[in-house]
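Morning F.,

Quick status update on the modeling queue. The single chain you submitted on Monday has been processed. Sequence for confirmation:
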Amino acid sequence: MTGAGRPTVAVPDGFTLVALEEVGSTNEEALKLATAGAATGTVVWAERQNKGRGRRGRAWDSPAGNLYCSIVLRPKRAPSAQVSFVAAVALAEAVESQGRPVQLKWPNDVLIAGAKVAGILLEGTSSALVLGTGVNIESAPPVGTSLRAHNIGASVATMLQSYLKALKSWLARWERDGFAPVRDAWLQRAIGVGQSIEVRLPAETLPGTFDGLDADGVLLLGTPGGVRRIAAGDVFLVRA
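Structure tokens below.
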């Protein structure tokens, strides 16, 4: 954050930081800026959110001490939904740089020891994509975990820098080489591949086996009736 008593952050080339104490939602703020013509790479970073949100409109608890940021992007490559996998791999690398292995849960949750430590939310306008990211650093909801719970001492500013550095690298690789290297890096960290899962959709719950991802990042669900392709849904591991 800028101002007395708050750390400043040197972001990589190609990013412009908008540092705020509190917003309703960093995604909402970034969407407004994108609509007004904000440059690609604009990063909205807030100490707190009072109306933070996650996937499917869920509330995202957002006290001070955690990382909340949203980035304005205008990808040159389609489909833009693949950006969530790019971001998940970049975020995984940022956490792993602190000495802890992570797991990735489809489509874009980051886990430590099986508990969620970070999440990603993609939203868009007619001309831009907003990549929202939340990382539990100092605290977490009861069902999640935090970096501090695993004795990771990185600050919010350090994690933001590490994430943006990795994101810049992976976005460039995706735009240059396509989705295949992103998919491979994601699957190397994936939780549940080859295991029994449930995919919860708005109208039904589908049991099956997590058979991996197709070439576009769509989940492949093995069922008695054949492989089903799932583009959106919530995945739950079935414990034996």
